[in-house]
Amino acid sequence: MRTIERDSGAGSARAERAAAPGFHPVLIGLGLMLVAFNLRPALSSIGPLLPGIRAGTGLSGALAGALVTLPVLCLGVFGRLAPVLVRRIGPDAGVLVGLVVLALGLVLRGLGGLPLLFLGSVVAAAAIGIVGVILPGIVKRDFPDRAGLMTGLYTALLCLGAAAGAGFTVPLRQGLGLGWEGALMLWAAPALVAAAAWLPFARARPIPNAAAAQPGGGLWRDPLAWQVTAFMGLQSSLAYIVFGWLPAALVDRGFDIVAAGLVASVSALAQGVLALLVPTLAARRPDQRPWVILVIALPLVGFTGLLVGPIALAWGFALLLGLGLGGCFGLALTLIVLRAGDPRAAAELSAMAQGVGYCVAALGPFLVGVVHEVSGGWGLPAALYAGLCLAAAGFGLMAARDRTVRI
């Protein structure tokens, strides 16, 4: 994270001029945290309801895998549109538009029926992909001297939002007497709250020159850039497999649906611990390979243990899983910054790693759905997950060496 934080005085001055007058940094930070919280419930709330959706609609395992996969694919595909939107209306207005579209997608998927469920999921995920690409630039602009801290907080709030989606969706459905449609629609409310909170910033800030957001062609020929991208994609796949399939797997193993959602929520909540700590600690040394081994080993043990290990150890496995996934995500963002020699390279590497990486990540949940339906159990999905962990470790060890990309 040190690369971000060592901005020049001129860069800091430009950042200060870009910020809207009259807004205290604390208010901007709170707005960012509200936005960040809403970037995961749309994805993590599907898993706890998946058994009920399949029972009520006859959704096959392959289509259930597609329902989990499509949103992840949209993060990568539509995230590439973020620079275009920023150049047209500015980053703050882009975030506001994204939040409104996110709320629209969440409402659509709760109107009933499989077509609207899939359409709403795609719309919501497209908005998340766009906002997720824009936010790091806003953090760097408004907090040039505290970018590392704000990135850690932003990542932790993402994990908190994921935990809320996984843990609260089923209790809210039961407490309010809703079907799965209404339970999914509920998450539009916090998205609208975040949009209302962000509205003053969107109205007050000018449109900056976003030419620096253009992707650089040189990265596509750089092996290191591809190693960083592969690590980002594979570790994201590990997370989205968990979001999509952990509750269903736990129900199959004897948990009731509420307990399964709580286990998933505890796992998601634990992500915030290492998501906050790993970026700070890993950036203190030029070589991050020991961190790669740690953050990959934890989800490898945790998720395979939940799928095929002793049920009595489920809560411990869930804790290990959450700590590891949070550390993976934090380390992936850190590697993007550390492997870039300057802010422009960091922006271009981030666009490449997220755009391509999330498309790679989308394959994981789909493959797990297919393998589970073919095998009828969770042994083969556990083996597939272990294989993805080993692949992520291989690319991560290459990406974690003390080098920088060439653009």
UniProtKB/TrEMBL annotation:
The protein's name: MFS transporter
Species of origin: Methylobacterium variabile
Signal peptide: none
Any GO molecular function: transmembrane transporter activity
TM helices/strands, residue ranges: 21-39, 59-81, 93-111, 117-139, 151-172, 184-202, 223-245, 257-278, 290-308, 314-338, 350-372, 378-400
Keywords: Membrane, Transmembrane, Transmembrane helix
Pfam families for the chain: MFS_1
Xref: Gene3D superfamilies: MFS general substrate transporter like domains
Domain of life where this protein originates: Bacteria
Stored SUPFAM superfamilies: MFS general substrate transporter
